[in-house]
Amino acid sequence: MQSPRVLYFRPSCGRVATPKGVSVRNYDLDFLKKFSLVILFLAVVTGGLIWLSAMLHRSVPPQESQTAIQAQLNRIAPVADVYAGSTGAALQAAAAAAAEAQAASQVAYGGTLDGGEIYGNLCAGCHTAGVAGSPTLTQADWASRIAQGRDVLYTHAIEGFTGSTGFMPARGGNPALSDEQVIASVDWMLENLQ
After folding, report:
1. CA–CA separation, 119 vs 116, rounded Å?
2. DSSP character for 14?
3. 65 lies in a domain?
4. pTM here?
5. Residue 111 CB contacts under 8 Å (≥ 6 apart), including other chains
6. Domain count, the chain
C-alpha cells in the first residue's frame, strides 16, 4: 500500500511544505487576486453611492409638513388677515367678536368672581410664604401698599409690577384671569388681612 501524501506546516516561516512531485496551483492564487479586485471594486462603488446620496440629500431642501404649515397659518391669522372696504370692516368686527367670545370662554376658574377661590387656587402660592417679596396677609406687610390706594394695587396686580421689595407677575402669572377676577382677589386679600 502506498502511504498518503502529507502537507507539513512550519510555523517559523508560515509556508506550506509540499513533498516532491506536488505542484502549487496557480489558478487558486489567480482566483483570489481576481476575487479581491471584485470586492475592492464593489467597496469603491458602494462608497461612491453613499457619497452621492449624501450630496443629494444636502442639496434638496427639507419639506415642511402640512400640519406645521397649517399651525403656523392659524397662529398668525389674527394679525395677518387683510380687511378692506365695507366687507372688510364687517369681517373685522366678526373676527373681533369671535376672539372676544373665545377669550371669554377661556376665563380662569369658570369666570368666578369669588376672591377667596381665586386666592386659594393661585395667589396663596406666593402670598402665604412671601415668595419674591410678596406681602403675606398681615397688616404690617400691606400698610405701605394700601396707602397708595386701591387703584394702584389693582393696576399692579393686573399689569404686573417690579419694586424694591420684589415683584408681582401680571395677573398673578395666569393670563386667563379677567380684570374683574384680579380685582376680586385683591379685594378679598385686603378684607382678610390680620
Report:
1. 5
2. T
3. no
4. 0.46
5. 104, 178, 181
6. 3
